[in-house]
Design a protein that fits this description.
Layout (H helix, E strand, L loop, with lengths): L10 E9 L5 H11 L3 E12 L4 E6 L2 H14 L4 E4 L5 H14 L3 E3 L17 H8 L5 E2 L3 H8 L6 H12 L5 E4 L8 E8 L2 E8 L9 H14 L4 H17 L15 H7 L1 H16 L15 E4 L9 E3 L4 E4 L2 E4 L4 E2 L3 H11 L7 E6 L2 H9 L4 E3 L7 H5 L4 H13 L5 E4 L8 E6 L2 H11 L1
Parallel strand pairs: 1-2, 1-4, 4-5, 5-6, 6-7, 16-17
Antiparallel strand pairs: 2-3, 7-8, 8-9, 10-11, 10-15, 11-14, 12-13, 15-18, 17-18
This protein binds adenosine-5'-triphosphate and (4-amino-2-methylpyrimidin-5-yl)methyl dihydrogen phosphate.
The site of adenosine-5'-triphosphate has 22 residues, from strand 8, helix 7 and helix 8.
Family: In the N-terminal section; belongs to the ThiD family. In the C-terminal section; belongs to the ThiN family.
Keywords: ATP-binding, Kinase, Multifunctional enzyme, Nucleotide-binding, Thiamine biosynthesis, Transferase
GO molecular function, one term: ATP binding
């Protein structure tokens, strides 16, 4: 539960460029502030004509108007924390530095140099101003590996190098330095914070996605939002890493280049919790209403599961703890649905979603030729895997069988099928698992089969 102080909403300010494509810059910052419950204000430094592929034009805002925007916000609304993004020239950097010093605002500096599409967003002769004027007034600075190389003057090829660079940059004035690992190699994206003489390292699986435009902007905006709430740098770092990882996982597939990440992913996920749980409740009601369920109930019981739209793991999948069992001819759920209640069906859903984002629900029923024929006669696509063909290294890994089996069945069908079955193995009951967008529609299919 996040307690929101409605009497005093925290205020964050972003001093950055506008991205017409809505993916990076102030657009990403405002979405991130909003996602974290902070009121966002802006001082636009440059207007870019930009999309997912390129920066076509840049118009810098005059230094007077940049200063006027900051003063307008500070004098009336007040600012708890600010961040900088694209600051194109030395003049802009110097003006921003003066304003920050005058109002003593806690500042996060994202030393944006080159856009993901390759366009320079900081003039080469302005790096000196960034180091001399901005870093000394920064609370936190968040370079990516390439930016850290420019600032620290060392090459970064490893986590060890990143640590060394973070220390060198800390000597330039900021309290905390985070060297981000998005542009490094390796199966994990590792970010390093150097703060008060200690290092904190946060890791996340490196996600394969084209849609990473705006990651650095959202990351620094999330840190700013948390500082605005009065959180400590370390805690802000954790929140930012989490938000950005989720936002990349559900990046927005628009444009032909690098689409934007989705800073709202966590928020949308939370907003769907109740509705998702209620779909499972309704599906259970339909199953419990089936007159004679003997042909569809497996020995181990039936379960119904449905995931949140932006699910990350089995905690984001609702199902019935203890499953639904046959009592006489009718089905009876042992308890009320909860999130995280079925690892088994969660694996079916989460693996299917790697192929088709629309899949959110699953129900398992007993395997029989008759049930398979019914599914086929309803025009549903059925695929299968054979547990006896499971490679040894998959068998050895806890929880790996279902993801492997789903992959086999999906590749066989050429898409995520409407149902996947296997004929069992030693100690494993054969099973049919129905997959679809909605738990209620799947329960209706099961009712028709029964
Ligand atoms: N493919 C990825 N998978 C997981 N996390 C990633 C990936 N790419 C970037 N990140 C994370 O996103 C955040 C931003 O890192 P990155 O190094 O990409 O910054 P940046 O280069 O400033 O971003 P941008 O390219 O938007 O300017 C970091 O927390 C980083 O670990
Ligand atoms: C206005 C503006 N600010 C920042 C970035 C950097 O973001 P990215 O490296 O993801 O392109 C950008 N492209 N445009």
């Amino acid at each position: 539960m996040v307690w929101i102080d409605l009497k005093r909403v925290p205020v964050a300010l972003t001093i950055a460029g506008s991205d017409s494509g809505g993916g990076a810059g102030i657009q990403a910052d405002l979405k991130t502030f909003a996602a974290l419950g902070v009121h966002g204000t802006v001082a636009i430094t440059s207007i870019t004509a930009q999309n997912t592929r390129e920066v076509r034009a840049v118009q810098d805002v005059s230094v007077d108007v940049i200063k006027a925007q900051i003063e307008a916000v500070v004098s009336d609304i007040g600012v708890d924390a600010a961040k900088t993004g694209m600051l194109h020239t030395s003049e802009i950097i110097e003006a921003v530095s003066e304003e920050i010093s005058r109002y003593k605002i806690p500042l996060v500096v994202d030393p944006v140099m080159i856009a993901k599409s390759g366009a320079p967003l900081l003039k080469e002769d302005a790096v000196g101003s960034l180091i001399r004027r901005l870093l000394p007034v920064a609370k936190v600075v968040t370079p990516n590996a390439r930016e850290a190389e420019v600032l620290a003057g060392v090459r970064i090829g490893s986590v060890e190098d990143a640590r060394r660079a973070a220390k060198l940059i800390a000597d330039m004035g900021p309290e905390g330095v985070i060297v981000k690992g998005g542009h490094m190699e390796g199966s994990e994206s590792i970010d390093i914070l150097f703060y008060q003489g200690d290092f904190i390292e946060l890791r996340a699986p490196r996600l394969e996605s084209r849609n990473t435009h705006g990651t650095g902007c959202s990351f620094s905006a999330a840190i700013t939002a948390e500082l605005a709430k009065g959180k400590d740098i370390r805690e802000a770092f954790r929140v930012a890493k989490d938000l950005v990882t989720h936002a990349i996982m559900y990046g927005i597939p628009v444009g032909k280049g690098h689409g934007p990440l989705n800073p709202m992913a966590s928020l949308y996920n939370e907003s769907e919790r109740y509705a998702t749980l209620m779909r499972v409740v309704e599906a259970v009601r339909i199953l419990e209403g089936i007159e004679d369920a003997r042909k569809i109930a497996p020995e181990v019981g039936i379960n119904v599961a449905m995931s949140l739209p932006y699910a990350r793991d089995s905690h984001d999948v609702a199902a019935v703890p203890g499953r639904i069992h046959l009592v006489g001819r009718k089905l009876k759920a042992t308890s009320y649905p909860e999130f995280g209640a079925s690892d088994h069906l969660a694996r079916y859903i989460l693996t299917s979603r790697l192929y088709d984002r629309e899949i959110r629900a699953a129900i398992n029923i007993a395997y029989s030729d008759e049930n398979l024929e019914r599914l086929a006669s309803m025009g549903l696509k059925v695929s299968w895997y054979d547990r006896r063909e499971e490679p040894g290294e998959v068998k050895a890994r806890e929880g790996a069988t279902i993801p492997w089996g789903v992959r086999v069945a999906v590749e066989r069908a050429g898409r995520v099928p409407d149902a996947i079955f296997h004929r069992g193995d030693w100690g494993k009951e054969p099973m049919i698992v129905l997959l679809g967008r909605d738990a209620v529609s799947l329960a209706e299919v099961v009712r028709s089969i029964a």
